[in-house]
Write a sequence for this structure.
């Protein structure tokens, strides 16, 4: 009844012990990565942006993610500026 091959499962359905074989079945070629990003974008757009009664939630989520990622990328620079003396 529940004999779905590990490769065909979604990431949230994979057990921790099956993670290696699941990752081995992914397509890491440039075309595979591009198609995975495109599928992710399409799912996000259809779930949060392209809805009948949409609000600012989907765009705000994207903006918060961008701000958090930018902060993580610049954290070393921000950390060094914190301890610098200005005199």
């Amino acid at each position: 009844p529940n004999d779905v091959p590990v490769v065909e499962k979604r990431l949230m359905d994979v057990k921790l012990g099956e993670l290696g074989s699941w990752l081995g079945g992914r397509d890491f070629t440039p075309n595979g990565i591009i198609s995975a990003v495109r599928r992710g974008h399409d799912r996000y757009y259809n779930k949060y942006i392209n809805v009948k009664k949409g609000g600012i939630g989907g765009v705000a989520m994207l903006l918060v993610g961008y701000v958090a990622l930018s902060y993580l990328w610049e954290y070393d620079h921000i950390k060094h500026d914190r301890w610098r003396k200005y005199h």
